[in-house]
Amino acid sequence: MENNFDINILIRENVKNMKPYSSARDEFEDFDTAEMIFLDANENPFENGVNRYPDPQQANVKEVLAKQKVVKSNQILLGNGSDEVLDLLFRAFCEPKIDNIITLPPTYGMYGVLANLNAVENREVLLTEDFQPEIEKIMEAVDANTKMIFLCSPNNPTGNSFSDESVAYLLQNFKGLVVIDEAYIDFSKKDSWINELDEYPNLIITQTLSKAYGLAGIRLGICYASSAVTTILNRIKPPYNVNELSQNRAVERLEDQQVISAEIESIIAQRELLIEALSEVSYVEKIYPTEANFVLVKVDDANKRYAELIAKGIVIRNRTTQALCENTLRLTVGTEEENKKLIVALKAIGT
Ligand SMILES: *Cc1c(COP(=O)(O)O)cnc(C)c1O
């Protein structure tokens, strides 16, 4: 594929000329650090496991991820949650008040929040009624200052994946960056776009340990991209953006693939049971197809049903104000016990 992609045209001018913050320790990479005495960073010298600053490059986490995903370590950038990774993308590529991005509502709210925060215009191109990208309208919205298109697939809050043809078309024809947010990819039968990384220089994939990997509390987001892109992001990221506890916990968990797979299988099985039960709820008008760990449903009156569930001590997400989502509720798949209680409550409020 050739779409005349040139990363240098996309980078913000001030970022192009920036040097990353260099800690004293970065300069001693080639030494046998085990033998050295570190009196450079004003740390407390008494060992307690976390008295030293964490590895700014998170080499151990990246090594495990690189092996599992069959990419190079230099194609990975880690952040304090994907939210930080997404913010770095804005700050690296979007000139405030000049550049724009394209998002496809109904979708994840953070793209719009980050666009606002960074004073970048967010051009919204609605998905179709069955929640697929409208390729022609997207291409019409693109101009010379469009730096990124955000594709959330599987999409939050709708649950479906975008067609391979649509994604491939954008990768081949859009000269900016195509960011595919794969926060829910582990619940889908579809392959990750990571496998296409070497094919498309404008492809950026974000994933997270917050959902399928069960580590929302440690805040670890992952960006897979060409080394040209990760080099730029590395230049601007806060040096110690992923703390030592999170790095250690991530490695531990990533090496536990069997446990993770078993949990994902259980969540998917529970999702299917929940869908079955939802089809028997009188006021549920539509259950949208899902490849994620949640189900979007259309009901008779979302505000009413939401309030009734709260009164029964169950908190779900009311999406009725989102584009194309009138009277919809988003239900996260819980444990078997939680889902049973949810189903009992859903049926009870319908009678
Ligand atoms: C939950 C979610 C994330 C995860 O964000 P983190 O900051 O990594 O917890 C990213 N994208 C989407 C679409 C999500 O729903």
UniProtKB/TrEMBL annotation:
Task: Describe the reaction catalysed, as an equation.
Answer: L-histidinol phosphate + 2-oxoglutarate = 3-(imidazol-4-yl)-2-oxopropyl phosphate + L-glutamate
Xref: Pfam families: Aminotran_1_2
Q: Main EC class of this protein?
A: transferase
Q: Is Cytoplasm set as a keyword in this record?
A: no
Q: In which pathway does it act?
A: Lipid metabolism; Amino-acid biosynthesis; L-histidine biosynthesis; L-histidine from 5-phospho-alpha-D-ribose 1-diphosphate: step 7/9
**What keyword terms does UniProt attach to this protein?**
Amino-acid biosynthesis, Aminotransferase, Histidine biosynthesis, Pyridoxal phosphate, Transferase
State the name under which the record lists this protein.
Histidinol-phosphate aminotransferase
Upper taxonomic lineage: Bacteria, Pseudomonadati, Bacteroidota, Flavobacteriia, Flavobacteriales
